[in-house]
Hints:
By secondary structure, the chain is of the alpha+beta class. It contains 22 helices and ten strands. The protein has a four-stranded antiparallel sheet. A hairpin with a 3-residue loop joins β1 and β2. The longest helix is centred in the C-terminal third of the chain and has 37 residues.
Amino acid sequence: xxxxxxRFRDIVETLTRHGLGFALGNLGLDWFRPASGSPGxxxxxxxxxxxxxxxxxxxxxxxxxxxFGQIVSTRTDVLPPEYVTELAKLQDASPPIxxxxxxxxxxxxxxxxADRLLDWLDDTPLATGSIGQVHCSRIALDPGDPExxxxxxxxxxxxxxxxxxxxxxxxxxxxxxxxxxxxxxxxKRAERASMRAAEFHVAAxxxxxxxxxxxxxxxxxxxxxxxxxxxxxADEARVHIPQxxxxxxxxxxxxxxxxxxxKVNDAAGLREAGIDAGAVARKACSVLLKMVFExxxxxxxxHPGNFFVEADGRLGIIDFGMVGHxxxxxxDQLVRMLLAIVEQDAARLxxxxxxMCGAQADSGFSDLQTxxxxxxxxxxxxxxxxxxxxxxxxxxxxxxxEYRLRLPRETALMLKMLVMADGLGKQLDPGxxxxxxxxxxxxxxxxxxxxxxxxxxxxxxxxREALRLGTDAPDIIRRAVxxxxxxxxxxxxRADELDRLMDKAEKTGNRIVAGLITAALINAVGDLVxxxxxxxxxxxxxxxxxxxxxxxALGAYLAVTSRPRK
Length: 566
């Protein structure tokens, strides 16, 4: 407990030192401040701006807070642009782990298998971070080993392969967990003390961050992520995902095939190697868009240091600790937003955006729709390829902040990835346009949503929902009767009001029955199409006739049952 109090006191001193003491009241930390301490309400050191002071404070608070700032810098829907720009500069300056400690961790984790790595381990780290450290090594492949085929090359058996070994810092899990618990407590205090913090769901942001951070602590999960990417790009000969060596991998040690090459943003290096930088930009962007729009599983940290152009021209990708998942419904909403911008449909754009944020589209967003109307008017008459998608995303993010809407973490990561992809493309090729690359993917999604299989699936889902409603109806009616039998509720009507109510009830009942008939028809058609897709393709006239027949039957039913009451 004393260690926790010391950490709280350290946070107070750090915030006060950087002129952020005014935040202590909102965090419920005033009682930690010494009586003689400065409230920290001034301009901070030498007139330094508030975003800079926040960045400096996070750097002083250590690894967890640095990582939090880096991740929050992706939330353009929450933070103003000046904070996004400043927090993106955060750099992890963690001291290196001593070589002896690294070797001890490898030996403890791998047992006898450790010698396979330790014999060739380079004690000088290739990279150092807040969670772990990376070292180069080599590993001899046994011809009988299931991992003897590297990158799909059976000839790899019996040779020595260059690898990188990622080792988790000793004691880092306990340290990170303690900081995450403190951060969660501070976020809850902030929401209780500040309406603005509550509007932005600060506690939920910290919880999302905690899940991301804890996932990065598990190197087994990172290995599984790498294998999933390898599976998704198995048919892409120009993409290289490093192989995971599971015999020398645990939750604390990760062994991967080493990727060598020129960083994708090294335009001079690419030119010197005779590689077309524009082609690299298009390829890298195409890979990232495939992750989002086809696989629904994407690399959430696509900075240039994680992408390399190898000597054989392949695009090598590394670092799979932070990933994102996109559902089919979110992907569809994004496409709907793009189409709404092209078609100048502010109402549809509002609905898609609000639903993506998890709010109800009918909860009073008329002012937002007006603002979005002005946005789409600016791009009137332009095809998708000519719309500056990054500029549009920046405007949408500003509107989300204004109307207190917050994107889900995965969607925010995806949009940040698109912005980074656009920036990388323009760095390599000034004429690069993200929307040109985006077009084929959105077209495939739209065409896919109109395929017989997709339509059949939607029809079946609609049918099942309607039939479930029909199944639940007797229970709902029975509960209503129970209420009435116990005395019910007293409602007073005038005779003319009762007549209008009976007319409306009768029409509603007719619609319910018609809906159940429609549901049964939809379910039957869905079953037919899914079981016999060839007949869907070969007998469109028959299905069309069946649909017309069903509509005719419904029309006849409504004509009979909707006659005026005597």
